[in-house]
Amino acid sequence: MNILVPLKPILDPAGMIVNRKAGRVFVNRENYMTNPADKRALEAALRIKDEAGAGVIVAAFGPDRSADSLLEARAMGADRAILIDIPSPDETVSVHALAALCHHLGQVDLVIVGDSALDTGASIGPRLAEALDFAFLGGAVQCSVEGNAARIIRRGDSRGRPDRASARPAPAATAHEADLPAVVAVTREGAQPRYPHGGNIITAYRDANAIESLSPADLGLSDSDLQPVAIERGQSFPPEREFGKQASLDDIASVIGHR
Amino acid sequence: MDVYDLQALMGENIEAEDYRDLWVVGLAVEMQHVASLLGEARRMADMLGAYVHYIGAGDSDEAIAFGADRVHTLAAESLAPDAAVSTLATFFETRKPEFVFFPATDIGNEVAGCLAQRLKGGVVCNCIALRLDESAREIVASHPVYDGAYYLDTALAAKPQIFTVREGAFPAPLRDSGRNGETEPMDSPADLAIRARALGEADYTPPAVSLRKAARVFAVGRAGNDSESAAIGKQIAEKIGAHFAGDRSAFDSGWIEEDQIVGVNGIEIAPDVYIAAGIWGDTLHRAGAEGAKFVIAIHPDKRAPIFSWADTCLVGKPKDVLPKLLALL
Amino acid sequence: MNYDLPPEYTALRRMMREFCEEEIKPAAKRIDHSGQVPREMLQRLGELGFLGVPFPRQYGGMGAGEIGYCILMEELNRASPSVATIVGAHIGIGVMSLYLDGSKTLQDKYMPDLCSGKKICAFALTEPNAGSDAAAIQMRATLEGDSYFLDGQKMWITNGPIADVINVLALTDPALGARGGATVFAVEREWEGYSTGKPERKMGLHGSPTSLLNFDNVRVPKENIVGQLGLGFVTFMKTLDIGRVSLGAATLGGAQAALEACVRWARTRSQFGRQIAHMQSVQFIVADMAAEIEALRALVYRTAWLVDTGRPFIKEAGMCKLLGSETASRCIDRAVQIHGALGLSRDFPLERAFRDARISEIFEGTNEIQRIVIASELMQEVGVRLRP
Q1: Which of B265, B283, B286 sits opposite C348 (nearest CB)?
Q2: Which alpha helices (DSSP H) does chain A contain, by range?
Q3: Under an 8 A CB cutoff, do C61 and A199 touch?
Q4: Tell me, what CATH number does C12's domain have?
Q5: Domains contained in chain B, number
Q6: Which H helix or E strand runs over C264?
Q7: What's residue B12's pLDDT?
Q8: From start to end of A1-43, where are the E strands?
Q9: Pick the catalytic residue: C22, C364, C377, C381?
Q10: Which residues face B139 on adjacent strands?
Q11: Structurally, how many domains does chain C consist of?
């Protein structure tokens, strides 16, 4: 069984200061990290590998910034790492390229993705399932393979967010399954990613063949496949926080309920 | 009667390229959220000279009252994500929608994503604002990134332009019960292509979260509190799924343990919501708690420094306020 | 000239930083108050390869050299000097002496368990009457048949109460003294006649246990000689030379943590109607700290590079420890001053850092010894040999 996990490097928010008043994002330290939900997706794949045995393939778009995400994944236990030579694709192009990658690799039974990207909000899971004609299971905090089916657990309080009214007791978690092949989207509440053994980091980084590169041509992608749909028109900012606003007890109760 | 009927009557062919109208898809969401989408769609439709369609299982008269011209009622079996995708995709292949709005629930996001892929359109999820450029016939959507630290403004270069919209993004719409509209049932395709199977409740315990990483923290301090009201505070914390904590004075009073002290001299926290009842909020406490994204403060003294860094404030004694708050929650 | 850390080390640091921030730093206060590091934490460090950073993969180490080891010590000490000290004594002098001079049989026997954290190592040199004058040791090892019998006492031994394998220096030929007549033995804690004293009550490093070791006619098989008979003093001195580099790295982490605390506090704290960041008295202090720390960082990693590239490093290693321990003490002292009364509070990490830092000027060769080491290297360059 082969599991594909796409990884997206994102700008580490720890090095960022958002100034709402100036309407600007200041980047003090330009560090990149793997999108947190994607890392949980990788952990879910590695757990299936540990329990049932599977080949775990990670893929990221490049050429820049992606090497660390891919090599870290290799150190954590991914068997192959693929760098797709398309710089910062949008959701649509990502989906085209990842679907083409699955066809290129053949024999991909399960794709586990992070449910959304912290830096763009893109969520490729449903679209990728549609493009591959795979089943889709979203909102997973746990994922396993039972026979020929992917089975997930979804937290009761995660589905339907952000409409959660927390004063109510959280509904029970539910299990869902779908026959393979399938795409599963893992949330940031998925299992805590493992730390790699330090020696594996050194080995992965010193292995010149740790990352395989594929060009759009290798994947048979045409120019129209590489045409982005999402056009960034800039940034906007939440209103500045206003402190000291007086409220009634009812207001407070309702604010607590809605946050 | 809408444009499709008119064209049919006049013997015109609907152009393959002709994407039109605003479509609000309700699925199984509370009417209040859907109503705000309908209201916004109505406003935009009037600017564009287009119609508003509503697809959903809810009360069609309500949808019309909130701005829909035409309601396509969705059969109950088409409400599950897989079925909704099949049904909507089949339907939209002939009725090419220009703009589609979904409520930004997990199901809404899933169906919107699948639909965008199937219809070769574009999608932006979790929008908190939409701005229509009627001459370019495009919508620029603001959607939060980095947990809401700021918003990206995104436009879509493909049609249909699909958006999922967070609750509260638009003002509550006017309800006009005198509006007219039409209702027709929507056919479900023979094969709903349902692949995901629900297996019922699962045995799952979320991993324990430490105070340092808690999403909600309810903390007490000495001002206007006594041991009884501190205990009520603890109940409130349990009820709202928050970690119970306090400042140094609460520890000195024996209401909390040492590892529940919030502050630079205790545990530093950064929750989504921090509620402080009876906490003065000086530098030591503030430095350990001001990473909170939203702060609610209750304190008997209106000069308490905590009010200068709290988003929502109530001057009052916690021992009077907390029992009432517990009852309200 | 290239000052970029190779990417594998940057990645290693990222992982170590994350682990220390998430798993060690939140426990640092409890470790200090309870006086011990949970064994599970050491086990966890072992699982991730932290307890064998400079040693080869075949033994369960990371194969990350002295540079990797310095990164580890910097990050650990930034989070908890107690944990760093246990790990430093384990890797930097304990296992290191085995790795530098031990036979392959002995390395195969002990290193996998030591690198994986199943066993903890200690290095026993100091005695009640032999501190800076390490050659004055009195512990005896007498040959009888195939075994040596060890008698005597070691003192102030880091990891003493928890060590499973102890590398100990004893006189095999008292007539020759330490230089030529001393040998290193690897001793296991279960062996008869071996016992440890109660943990010492120290000013700092409360979580890092230190104790007496008693050797009461402990039988050690010949195979457990580390290195060559009679050359044990050389083995131990070589080990200490290299250990000073990582000690410097550890002090770097402590100083860095103090600077970070100051910068944050300068932003948080307001007096006289403005953030204290705007006060030059505070600015000058943090600027001095930052400059000294940067100089130390350059020295430490250059010296680690000298070690990894097989060049002479003894003089620089002495400088790492000397400059590092004094820089850290100075920075933490200034940080306490900036924080005012809060700096003295047991609830705040600086008080602990202040206590924990002082020992760095003393253990593994006092700073006076470091100055002698540096001076003798300097004098040797002009043909003057200083008497030990």
Answers
A1: B265
A2: 36-52, 66-76, 91-105, 125-132, 198-206, 249-258
A3: yes
A4: 1.10.540.10
A5: 2
A6: helix C232-268
A7: 53
A8: 2-6, 9-11, 16-19, 24-27, 32-34
A9: C364
A10: B132
A11: 3
A251 within domain boundaries: no
Residue C223 is a catalytic residue:
no
CA–CA distance, A98 with A129 (Å, rounded to integer): 10
Taking the mean position of all CA atoms in its chain, how far away is CA C332?
19
3-state secondary structure of C385: coil
C266 lies in the same domain as C306: yes
pLDDT in tens, B27-58: 866 778 888 999 999 999 999 999 999 998 87
d(CA B149, CA C214): 60
Q: In the β-sheet with A230-236, what is the strand arrangement from edge to edge?
A: A230-236, B150-156, B138-145, B129-133
Residues C139-143: contacts with CB within 8 Å, 24+ apart? C139/C168, C139/C169, C139/C170, C139/C171, C139/C215, C140/C170, C140/C171, C140/C174, C141/C170, C141/C171, C141/C172, C141/C183, C141/C185, C141/C220, C143/C172
- What is the residue type of A47? R
| Domain coverage including residue B165 | 3-185
Cβ separation of C7 and A202 shorter than 8 Å? no
Side chain identity at residue A228, one-letter code: P
User: Helices C314-339 and C232-268: crossing angle, nearest 10°?
Assistant: 30
For chain C, the chains sharing at least 3 beta-carbon pairs closer than 8 angstroms are: A, B
Query: How far is Cα of residue C229 from the mean position of the Cα atoms in its chain?
Result: 26
Q: What is the CATH number of the domain that holds B265?
A: 3.40.50.1220
- CA closest to A35 among chain B residues: B146
DSSP string, A71-102: HHHHHHT-SEEEEE--SS--HHHHHHHHHHHH
CA-to-CA distance for C160 and C164, rounded, in angstroms? 9
Q: What is the pLDDT of residue A257?
A: 79
**How far apart are the C-alpha atoms of B40 and B48, rounded to whole Å?**
12
DSSP string, B130-171: EEEETTTTEEEEEEEETTTTEEEEEEESSSSEEEEE-TTSSP
Q: Which residues of B258-268 are buried (b: 16+ CB within 10 A; e: fewer)?
A: eebbbbbbbbb
What pLDDT, in 10s, does the model give residues C55-78?
999 999 999 999 999 999 999 999
Torsion of CA C145, C147, C150, C154, to 10 degrees: 160
A27 touches B: beta carbon within 8 Å: no
What per-residue confidence (pLDDT) applies to B205?
Answer: 84
- Please, are residues C96 and C115 in contact by the beta-carbon 8 Å criterion? no
A160: pLDDT strictly greater than 80: no
Residue C361, both tokens: 């000027």
Instruction: Look at residue B78 in the predicted model and tell me its pLDDT.
Output: 82
Among candidates A38, A40, A31, A94, which has minimal Cα distance to A62? A94
Q: With contacts defined as CB-CB under 8 Å, which chain A residues touch B30?
A: 163
C260 and C369 housed in the same domain: yes
Q: At what angle do helices B81-94 and B106-118 cross, to 10 degrees?
A: 40
Give SS3 for A122.
coil
C240, part of any domain? yes
Place of tokens 């593994």: C364
Query: Within an 8 Å CB–CB cutoff, is residue A252 touching chain B?
Result: yes
Q: Which structural domain, as residue segments, surrounds residue C373?
A: 234-381
Q: In what order do the strands lie in the sheet with B273-277?
A: A245-246, B312-315, B295-299, B273-277, B216-220, B243-246
Encoded tokens for C299:
């020295």
How many Å apart are CA A144 and CA A135, to the nearest integer? Answer: 15
CA-only gyration radius of chain B, Å: 25
Distance CA A26, CA A243 (A): 23
B197 within domain boundaries = no
Nearest to B156 by CA among B133, B190, B178, B174: B133
- Residues above pLDDT 90, as percent of chain A: 83
Tokens of A6: 């796409």
Q: Is B85 helix (H, G, I), strand (E, B) or coil?
A: helix
Query: How many structural domains does chain A have?
Result: 1
The parent domain of residue A145 ranges over 2-220
